[in-house]
């Protein structure tokens, strides 16, 4: 979808204010940006920017919440995120404009750096599991109500809402949903509680970048404070992270013994999300995973 003249005429002055200089948009080129939003590279007389665009009515406050998540990661001073230029609304279009990151090779050194820096981010903690506001996981709303322990948070704010959505959409049967009730009773015995860590929350291989200088960046966060194994587990779900990444992370902040045996447990949440968004091709993986812990 090309940007309308009216939209560009709206963007130029707000970009000018954000940058403190007159901005003239020379080109708005569509680029790959995911399933939810349209994405563009904005080339201007000043710099290049990355812009995401979607429906404000369909996804209210999505980009405002994303910008707050990026800010939370940025404030840790551990791993880079793109510069947030501005977010806003034009007609029914919500937009988020970020600094452009020119991508380079995902080298062993760069992945080691990412592992080390993620470990540093996970050392940034909070008294409770949750976050100051709700946000999104993919295109679905995500609740971050505070809890004193990870079991309660993972059950009430992560698994139960997704299971209920799957029931409502006829993606799970009542019998299959009952398996999760059994899991909830067992969950506290399956892992050791830790101090809540700042989590990226959607850490699959498409949500980090390596720039041309080998510097890692995290993008598209779904932040909360929670158990750090959740982030690590999700890196294993779809690939994209090397042995160098895990070795560097574990050297900087060793994981609990047998963490690999719990990846399928924490990945129930993103798998349920994929079940709800993309259909029953994910059902067998969900049921197999929950049965592993019963």
Q: What is the structure about, briefly put?
A:
This protein has helices spanning 5-19, 62-75, 108-122, 150-168, 174-186, 228-235, 243-252, 263-266, 268-278, 283-291, and strands at 25-31, 38-44, 48-55, 84-90, 93-99, 135-137, 140-142, 197-199, 208-210, 216-218, 224-226. The protein is an alpha+beta fold.
Number of strands: 11
CATH topology descriptor of the largest domain: Aminoglycoside 3'-phosphotransferase, Chain: A, domain 2
Summarize the amount of helix as a percent range: 40-55%
Q: End-to-end span in angstroms?
A: 48 Å
The CATH superfamily of the largest domain turns out to be: Aminoglycoside phosphotransferase (APH), C-terminal lobe
Instruction: Write the CATH architecture name of the largest domain.
Output: Alpha-Beta Complex
**Beta-strand proportion:** 15-25%
Strand numbers in spatial order across the main sheet: 1-2-3-5-4
User: What's the tally of helices?
Assistant: 10
| C-alpha-based Rg, rounded | 20 Å
CATH class category label of the largest domain: Alpha Beta
**Sequence stretches where pLDDT stays below 50 over 5 or more residues:** none
Helix-strand layout with pairing:
Layout: H1 5-19, E1 25-31, E2 38-44, E3 48-55, H2 62-75, E4 84-90, E5 93-99, H3 108-122, E6 135-137, E7 140-142, H4 150-168, H5 174-186, E8 197-199, E9 208-210, E10 216-218, E11 224-226, H6 228-235, H7 243-252, H8 263-266, H9 268-278, H10 283-291
Antiparallel strand pairs: 1-2, 2-3, 3-5, 4-5, 6-7, 8-11, 9-10
Helix pairs in contact: 3-7, 4-5, 4-9, 9-10
């Amino acid at each position: 979808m090309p940007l309308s003249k009216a939209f560009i005429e709206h963007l130029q002055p707000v970009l000018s204010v954000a940058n403190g200089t007159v901005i003239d948009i020379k080109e708005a080129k569509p680029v790959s940006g995911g399933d939810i939003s349209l994405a563009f590279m904005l080339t201007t007389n000043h710099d290049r920017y990355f812009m995401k665009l979607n429906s404000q009515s369909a996804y209210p406050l999505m980009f405002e919440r994303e910008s707050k998540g990026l800010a939370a990661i940025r404030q840790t001073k551990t791993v880079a995120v793109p510069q947030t230029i501005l977010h806003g609304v034009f007609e029914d279009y919500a937009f988020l404009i970020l600094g452009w990151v020119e991508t380079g090779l995902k080298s062993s050194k760069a992945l080691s750096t990412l592992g080390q820096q993620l470990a540093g981010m996970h050392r940034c903690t909070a008294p409770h599991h949750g976050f100051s506001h709700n946000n999104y996981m993919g295109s679905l709303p995500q609740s971050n109500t505070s809890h004193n322990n990870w079991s309660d948070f993972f059950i009430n704010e992560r698994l139960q809402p997704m299971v209920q959505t799957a029931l409502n959409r006829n993606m799970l049967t009542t019998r299959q949903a009952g398996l999760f009730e059994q899991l909830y009773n067992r969950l506290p015995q399956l892992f050791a509680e830790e101090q809540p860590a700042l989590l990226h929350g959607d850490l699959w291989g498409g949500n980090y970048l390596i720039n041309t200088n080998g510097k890692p960046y995290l993008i598209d966060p779904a932040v909360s404070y929670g158990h750090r194994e959740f982030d690590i587990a999700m890196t294993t779900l779809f690939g994209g992270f090397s042995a160098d990444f895990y070795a560097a992370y574990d050297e900087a902040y060793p994981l609990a013994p047998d963490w690999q045996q719990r990846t399928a447990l924490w990945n129930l949440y993103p798998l349920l999300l994929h079940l709800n968004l993309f259909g029953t091709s994910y059902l067998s993986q969900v049921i197999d995973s929950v049965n592993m812990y019963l």
